[in-house]
Protein: S9 family peptidase
Amino acid sequence: MLKKGILLKLFVLLGMVQTFAQINGAWKGTLEVSGMKLNIIFNIKDDGGKLSATMDVPEQGASGIPIDKVVFENPKLTLSVAAAGISYEGALEGKEIKGSFKQAGMEFPMTLTKTEITKPGDLSLPSSDAEIKKLIENDKGNYKYTVEDYFKKPKSSSFQLSPNGKYLSYKEKDDKGKNHVYVKETTTGKVTRAIEEKEELIRGYGWINDERLLYVMDKGGDENYHVYAVNLDGSNLKDLTPFDGVKASILNLLKEQKDYIIVSMNKDNKQIQEPYKVNVVTGAMEKLYTNNDPANPIMGYEFDKDGQLKAFAKMKNGVNSELYYKGAADTDFKLAKATKWDETFSIISFNYATPNPDDAYVLTNLDSDKSRIVLYDFKTGKIVKEVYANKDFDASIISLSRKRNWEIDYLGFEGEKVEIVPVSATFKQVYNNLEKQFKGYQFSVIGKTDNEDKLMVMVESDRLYGTYYLYDSKTGKSTLLYDLMPQLKEADMAIMKPITFKSRDGLTIHGYITLPKAALEGKKVPLIVNPHGGPQGIRDSWGFNPETQLFASRGYATLQVNFRISGGYGKAFFRAGFKQIGRKLMDDVEDGVKYVIQQGWADVNNLAIYGGSHGGYATLMGLIKTPELYKCGVDYVGVSNIETFFASFPEYWKPYKELIKEVWYDLDNPEEAKIAKEVSPFYQLHKITKPLFVVQGANDPRVNINESDQIVKALRSKGVDVPYLVKYNEGHGFSHEENTIEFYKAMLGFFKSHLN
Structure:
């Protein structure tokens, strides 16, 4: 009897194990509510005969939601999340669980199927929802503005005029946070939804012609963009680049051939881009040029207004650039200019105002430190004349009028602010009218009809997020179209002040300080140091910055330094940052901090550092290089190890590998490899003693999730508490509204915990 009883218990136990094995794993179902589809994933785990589970809702950026109750009595499964009033009951039938999902008194049928969930990175590392929520709760206070006020996407945005001016298009957000594209007929007021945003975000859209729109999407931030075309009424939707794992981009809209555009794709070789002419109605495509030398890939193509390929820029041996040009009398492309990769000689536009078909406006710094705009004759290989230059900053802006035989309307550059110089008589009148109407603000023409009778104007400042105006060329008057952020009152916003200081080795460094009111009143306030990404060629700019304004609303000043290697300040300043990442670039940031403290704005005992991408790397290096300077740091999609960063380059970055060695470090050179190791945070973790918050998009193709995983794992092994926020529907930076808002709430809670 005793043996029989033992055997009976054993059989029961084995039966339970077998039963739980049936239910163990990820089960996915689709919930349809009011025409919207949500994927629900229940992750059920058998832990030694005890079941536990979590819930993911990928479209809402939610993952790892703890499930309170998990009961499986074959075939019946019961799951519930008491705090959210959610439950699911179903019965296992073969490979499916058929049942219903309940929430807030509503019930929806939902069938679950076993699925393999392959999420990037180490799934054991990210902080739980409860841990992030606890962090968020630290930022309690009587604040006039919420995080949502700064980071909720505007109700309407991205206004554009159709080429004929008969339609006005815009994005409009629905009550589920989706930003659909609508088209409004200006005479009748009739509104039609042309593009519906579903699970994936519409990354950008625009007019092809008067009948069709185009838009761009990827999958979860992976940057493998597809280009789509659709009629104004939403019909005849076409994926113009229907290839998985291929990165597409728009090269040219052909105004003279209204049903065609030119796109580039890495369809035939993941490392190189080649141009295709695509019919936007039928989807038919034709390759326009084949890159027969992938070892020396073509990096850019220049087409004229008629869609003829006239020039292309080729990378040579990874560090040099060659511009090939095909003249009007030529049968093939010829080498027109050979330069170093860090020198500029690039075509801005061909000059259609002249009978000479070989004239072009070129941006160059070959014979100067600052880039200047010249008129260049490719037939003779000589500069015809200098069009525009500035002694202190790189020239970068030129605008031509297609209607008025391609005459120059205006030129300009970006210094402390964007500066525009009107040229044509027509635009001088426009500029004078706008300057009178918007004195003290920064304004820019962001769109116009083909006959230029209506212009779309954006008006903004450091304290105004942005307003759209419609300018009537006949009357010279502007009509307010839309205020993007009416909830943010200018009078309450902080000022962004341009600053200039000397680096410790004598360079002139520019930047910006955003100051809360307390700092203007003479009080020393906590400072957040915010190094920019890139780092090469990128820069911070003057204007409304929701991030620095949010910090100011909590009493924090924000410092942004355009350290050496930043763009816009000339060739010598750019080159001064080569092989200085983690070294002199950090010195420039520290010199900026010293300058701000000397001005009496910042409390030296309350400094934090935060940045994204290279800025995330700079955060880690700041905590290592000057640990006494900062009380805490936030690393957002930042590089932690130069060796693993290089090893995880996406395919389309690999042709740039030699160039990146010139900017960062050559790991094949023993001396430089040693330096790279010394400035890789991963190898200096013993020096990080201050609190760190790490944030990462799981699908990031540039800074792989392992860059963040390895820093979190290593620091936690030392006993350091590192909050870690990961979103599995994001890439290199967060784009989903709900994820962005959660990130900033958590960051404010983190700062509140560590800054006085």
In short: The radius of gyration is 29 Å. Confidence is low (pLDDT under 50) at residues 1-18. The longest strand covers residues 36-47. Residues 2-23 form the longest helix (22 residues).
